[in-house]
Structures are given as structure tokens and as C-alpha cells.
Specification:
Layout lengths: L11 E6 L5 E2 L4 E10 L5 E13 L11 E6 L2 E6 L9 H11 L6 E5 L4 E13 L6 H4 L6 E7 L11 E6 L16 E6 L7 E5 L6 E2 L5 E9 L14 E10 L7 H18 L1
Antiparallel strand pairs: 1-15, 2-3, 3-14, 4-12, 4-13, 4-15, 5-6, 5-8, 7-8, 8-9, 10-11, 10-14
Length: about 280
């Protein structure tokens, strides 16, 4: 039983393996049906935490969400689509690949390690990054960037891929917030601190557990997303995790009388103002 439990029920641990899912919506979206539902007594709350997590880093830095470059060179538009290339590319490899793909335009793409930026070069021509380009972070460019003869990326290139894996449970009413302040169901943010092909490991060192609005748990809807809230493309990789549910007694709110009197006074003043 967890030390945060103050109920008569013991903690419940859920040992999850992605390849044992009841419903498979993709490598990073699984649903697990429970043969026995979890339903505590009405006077108890449930809190859930991610105890541990393991998965290989099997996702590429170039994927379906960031593999498109729309570019105008000398007034002609070129569309580069690497969404199905399925590779981890270094900066120099990407520069070489782009030069080959854009050979019809005679543009040359290079990468400068000293400033970590890409440069597109074609003498006497205007070069512009067009809308619908998704290679923004990888190339360090912005839509609308323009240059004559050369176009160097505005920002540094980022070929490291997502910096974190976000573990979401979508059906329990977990009220954590994302950067926009919206409820997102994220139960943990796991740092990607290994190279491709190695394993990511997480352990709940701080013993953090979150309340949920769900009163009955019949299953789990789990997704893994990247920094931009896109589902990870695991390329057949599997993940596993341990979730722990703790139970705590519902505590009655004890509001001091002074605050109740102040609230009543404010309501009365508001009603007078309305008249």
C-alpha cells in the first residue's frame, strides 16, 4: 500500500505492455480493456501516477509531421516531400539529400557547423520559403524567408527530434495543463536522453500522483506524443509502463465563517448595484 493511501483499499498497480492492447490504433495509441473494473466506494477518490516507463528510441528525426519543404527558386515552385523517407539524417546528409532532390532547380544546399545553419544558393535568383513547409524546426527557417543568390536559415537547425515523450491517458479526466492552459491528460513528460536504438527509462522518483474525475475505470486509452502534440511514429517499437492507483478519503471542505460572510456581503452589494 502506498504511503499516500488513507483508505481501507490497497494500491492497485497496472502493468501495461503495448503489444497486449485490446485495441490498436497505431504504435503510439493503444486501448486496454479491463476484465475487472476499478470502482472504489463513493467516499473515496482515486489518484494515479506513472511509476515506470520503458521504450526504445525507435522514432526518426525526419517523419510525416516535419518532412515537407515548399520553396520558390527563381519564380518556380518546388515541393520536397520526405514524409515517407523514414530515416535519421544528419545535417550534412540532409543538405546533400535536398541538393539531389532539388537538382532540377540547380540550387545548392549546404550546412555550416560553426553557426548550425543551412544555406540555399543559386546565383542571380530569388529564393523564398513558402507556406505549408513543415521542415521549419529541422532547417531553422520561417515561412516567408527570402534571399537573393543565397538564403540562410533564420534560426539554428534542430535535427535532434522531439526532446520529450508525453504519456497521456485520455479517458480518466486528468486535469494537467499544456502550454496553452488546456486540459490534456498528460500524466508524465519523459526526457529523451538517449541515442537512436537505445532505451528510454523513467522512474517516478518524486512519487507524484494525480486526481482524476473518472469514478469507474473500465480501461485505459493511452497515447504517446511529441513536443508538438503529434503521435510518435515508433516504427514498430513497443513500450511498457507501470501505473499505480491510490485511494484517498474525500475530505469535506472546511470554509471559515469569515469567508462565507464576506462572500454573502459581496453578493448583496452586487445585487444592490444591479438595482
Amino acid at each position: 500500500m502506498s504511503i499516500i493511501n488513507d483508505a481501507h483499499l490497497g494500491s492497485v498497480s497496472l502493468f501495461i505492455q503495448s503489444d497486449k492492447a485490446s485495441k490498436d490504433f497505431g504504435d503510439a495509441h493503444k486501448f486496454f480493456d479491463f476484465q475487472e473494473i476499478i470502482e472504489p466506494d463513493p467516499h473515496l477518490n482515486m489518484l494515479i501516477g506513472l511509476e515506470s516507463f520503458e521504450m526504445p528510441k525507435s522514432f526518426f528525426n525526419l517523419n510525416s509531421f516535419n518532412g515537407i519543404l515548399n520553396i520558390s527558386i527563381g519564380g518556380s515552385t518546388y515541393n520536397v516531400d520526405y514524409t515517407t523517407i523514414g530515416k535519421n539524417l544528419s545535417a550534412s546528409e540532409l543538405a546533400s539529400q535536398l541538393t539531389t532532390t532539388l537538382s532540377a532547380s540547380s540550387v545548392s544546399v549546404s550546412f555550416e557547423e560553426k553557426n548550425n545553419k543551412f544555406t540555399f544558393t543559386k546565383s542571380g535568383e530569388i529564393i523564398t520559403i513558402l507556406a505549408n513547409t513543415t521542415m521549419i524546426d529541422i532547417l531553422g527557417v520561417k515561412v516567408g524567408d527570402t534571399g537573393t543568390n543565397t538564403l540562410t536559415s533564420t534560426n539554428i537547425a534542430n535535427l535532434s527530434g522531439t526532446g520529450s515523450v508525453y504519456v497521456k491517458i485520455n479517458n480518466l479526466g486528468i486535469q494537467n495543463r499544456d502550454s496553452r492552459g488546456q486540459s490534456d491528460g498528460v500524466i508524465s513528460k519523459i526526457m529523451v536522453d538517449c541515442n537512436y536504438g537505445n532505451y528510454l527509462f523513467y522512474k517516478n522518483q518524486t512519487q507524484v500522483y494525480y486526481p482524476m474525475s473518472a469514478r469507474i475505470i473500465k480501461g485505459l486509452d493511452i497515447t504517446l506524443t511529441d513536443d508538438n502534440d503529434n503521435l510518435l511514429e515508433l516504427n514498430g517499437g513497443k513500450f511498457s509502463m507501470v501505473l499505480t492507483i491510490n485511494f484517498s478519503k474525500i475530505k469535506m471542505r472546511n470554509i471559515p465563517q469569515k469567508f462565507l460572510l464576506d462572500k454573502i456581503k459581496r453578493l448583496e452589494e452586487t445585487n444592490i448595484d444591479k438595482k
